[in-house]
Amino acid sequence: MAAPEHPGGAGHAGAPAQHESGALAVGPAEHVSDPPAHVDAELVAQLVEFGATRSSEYDADHVVPAEHVHDDLGTTAHHDRHREQRTGNHVISIRPGRATAPAQAPAPRRAPLPTHHDEPVLDLVVPVFNEEKDLEPNVRRLHTHLRDTFPYPFRITIADNASTDGTARIAAQLALDIAEVTSLRLPVKGRGRALRAAWSGSRAPVLAYLDVDLSTGLAALLPLVAPLISGHSDLAIGTRLASGARVVRGPKREVISRCYNTLLHWTLAVGFSDAQCGFKAVRREAAERLLPLVRDEEWFFDTELLVLAERAGLRIHEVPVDWVDDPDSSVDILATALADLRGIARMRRTLAATGPRARRPRTTA
């Protein structure tokens, strides 16, 4: 699934390039492979082996103080580790591979990213469909926040999935105006499809996305990606249902969200708390293993990705977020809920055929 280098600041001028899959991009073209029609048992086995390899040297019974865990993230990460201790979550160290090895823990298998980068470290995708009203002001606000607070090079990718209004024109103009913005246009609708296309075509080591309405407070963005940059975790998700989250939304959406996540716990025995928050990140090597297995192309894409990651034993970091409901959201709640139920039923059948999952500790900031 690897793709050619996709620079963050150059190549915006000129005509859109045609993807082999039919997606239009402002900037260099990338090949986007289609998902498999069914889950390949061999790919599932490879994914579980990948998770086992990543977790084989972790010992959940061995806990070290937060100050003994090394990363390159400075005071922000140090503060988050102490919050983990106060909330009772464990920072897991890595034991040597053999009993005769010295007691000092070796470096993590997930190597921290170098502190100096020329290419984007973070590729932050903003999937959009008919968002001509909010797109420009919110992307400019997001860019300003990243420019002022994010210590690594970054890229913002606007992934337009078949908008019929002026969204594509505005996205293309933003890509020309701002060096760190690129735009990708797909001819077929689907948020999951847009994320798959953008993530598959990126070479950034950390891939993330957030909703264009910026319902999630941007202050949570650095805590979201910090454990991926440091090598602590494979995926990170924002959660509105954990202690420390502050949420403003109507009772209808609150009930639906809680019922959905409760249903996931009952039917798929998941350990993560909030599958639907539009605020997630993944290390690229994990995405390369997971994306070929994800079948859904719409709203269930997030849930399926997380379930497969957890089943493979990958580390999922949770960050409580501040979240304010967008009253103008165009999401069809009933249709989305029905599609999610069908996705859960399909995942139950899929997971029943793959055997028991590899359990790993879940961490919460």
Report on the structure:
With 365 residues, the protein is an alpha/beta fold. It has a single domain (23-29, 115-364), classed as Spore Coat Polysaccharide Biosynthesis Protein SpsA, Chain A, CATH 3.90.550. It is 35% helix and 17% strand. The protein is built from ten helices and 14 strands. Strands 1-2-7-6-5-8-11-9-12-14 form a ten-stranded mixed β-sheet, with helices on both faces. A two-stranded antiparallel ribbon has the order 3-4. It starts with 16 loop residues before the first strand and ends with a strand.
Mean pLDDT: 76
The ordered H/E elements are EEHEHEEHEHEHEHEEHEHHEEHE
Number of strands: 14
Could you name the ranges where pLDDT drops below 50 across 5 or more consecutive residues? 1-22, 24-39, 55-108
The helix/strand class is alpha/beta
Report the CATH superfamily. Answer: Spore Coat Polysaccharide Biosynthesis Protein SpsA, Chain A
* CATH fold category name: Spore Coat Polysaccharide Biosynthesis Protein SpsA, Chain A
CATH architecture: Alpha-Beta Complex
Broad CATH class:
Alpha Beta
Percentage beta strand: 15-25%
Radius of gyration: 20 Å
The main sheet comes to: 10 strands, mixed
Q: How are the strands ordered across the major sheet?
A: 1-2-7-6-5-8-11-9-12-14
Distance between the termini: 31 Å
Number of helices: 10
How many domains, in number, for the residues?
1
Shape: globular
Specify the helix fraction band: 25-40%
